[in-house]
Amino acid sequence: MKRKRNKRVDVIALTRKLISFNTINPPGNEAAIAEFAGSLLSENGFNVDYPVFDKNRLHMIAEKGLSKSLPPVVLSGHFDTVPLGAEGWSVDPFAGKIKGGRIFGRGSSDMKGGLAAMISAAIEATDGSVPEGGIRLVFTACEELGCRGAQQLVKSCRKLGRASAIIIGEPTGNLPAIGHKGAIFLNAVTTGKTAHSSMPELGVNAIYKAARSISKIEKFRFNTAKDPLLGFPTINVGKINGGMNINSVPDRVDFTIDIRSTTKVDHSAVLRKLRRELGDETEIDKFVDLSPVHASGKEPFVKLVYKVCAGEKIKADLPRSLPYVTDGSVLQPLYGGVPTVILGPGQPEMAHKIDEFCYIHKIKQAVAIYKRIILNWAQKS
Asked: For residue 217, which of 278, 265, 283 has the smallest C-alpha distance?
């Protein structure tokens, strides 16, 4: 019996359709786009599931050709986008306008162009026959706020199976990266006692406490070796809020601490050291804790990706790491540290920007790259 052929997908039309879904986070509202993407994959023989993240918010898992003998390659991305920003756009951010070889819209680079390319490649790679081991697509809700969606998915879903390798479709301009730093995000609070500013001795100034702590953070040292791929860890105070008015002693200050880690950093040890140095004046609450992603250029999967992407003249720039965090921080540990590559058609410098765009030829190129990786990895495995 002849196997049914898959339906051909116009990846640019698909990108425009995905852009038309307003998935700005918050609130996200990823249910409609998840169901649309899932229905397209289902029509092409994939088994699709929609784990719930929250009201009107769904993840999507699609699988085809899985076997017990060989784990599949996992293609991962996220549905949500960041807000539009205060500055006005020159184009409709949800129309997918095409101009000058570029497609414009919120999420075009980060990362609906990547989603469209992954969907198209998965369908094409399983056209007629399915590569050994099969394919799993894991598309998440709520990535933009500290990969919360992926963390919830891993904790609540038992259908994520095994993996032989992972591709994260975040924007890299189709140049593969094999790692990025981890992240620890902290809310910090100092408290005091309010009083009239003309009698400050009757109060306790929370701003002074915060200032002392922030000065210590500026001088904080990790005392770790340099990671060959990721460099040194960093720490930054990014936001502060406190006080009521000019003539009152402030009784509360809130500020944030952003730590970016490497494989040389033990998260628990760093937090203990930071709390010890800041002392009792500052209360710290952790709300994001993500591991760094790293792979070796010697791993067969990474070598294959480099070979497939060699037309991009990337050899002089390898190995590469990225400054931003991805769902790979959650998925790589879940799948036992399998080789993980960040590779997508979006322009990294356009992520979160006004008038965001993605080059059309990069999206088409990504389809070919993903498809070749899927098919060649199955043969090698």
From this structure: 278
Average pLDDT of the chain, as a whole number: 95
Question: How much is the pTM?
Answer: 0.93
Residues listed for the chain: 381
Amino acid at 350: M
CA geometry: angle 367, 368, 372, nearest 5 deg: 120
Using DSSP, state whether 123 is helix, strand or coil: helix
Helix 113-125 vs helix 11-20: angle between axes, to the nearest 10 degrees? 140
Is residue 152's pLDDT more than 80?
A: yes
Could you tell me which residues come within 8 angstroms of residue 305 by beta carbon, excluding any fewer than 6 positions away? 167, 176, 341, 343, 373
Domains of the chain: 11-180+292-380 (3.40.630.10), 182-290 (3.30.70.360)
Buried b (16+ CB within 10 A) or exposed e, 46-69: bebeebebbeebbbbbbbbbbeee
The whole-angstrom distance between residue 311's C-alpha and the CA centroid of its chain comes to: 26
Express each pLDDT in 292-306 by its tens digit.
999 998 999 999 999
Contacting residues for 280 by C-beta, under 8 A, at least 6 apart: none
How far is the C-alpha of 36 from the C-alpha of 84, rounded, in Å? Answer: 23
Which pair of tokens denotes residue 96? 């997918």
| pLDDT (tens digit per residue) in 80-105 | 999 999 999 999 999 999 999 999 99
Burial of 249 (C-beta count, 10 Å sphere; 0-12/13-18/19+) = buried
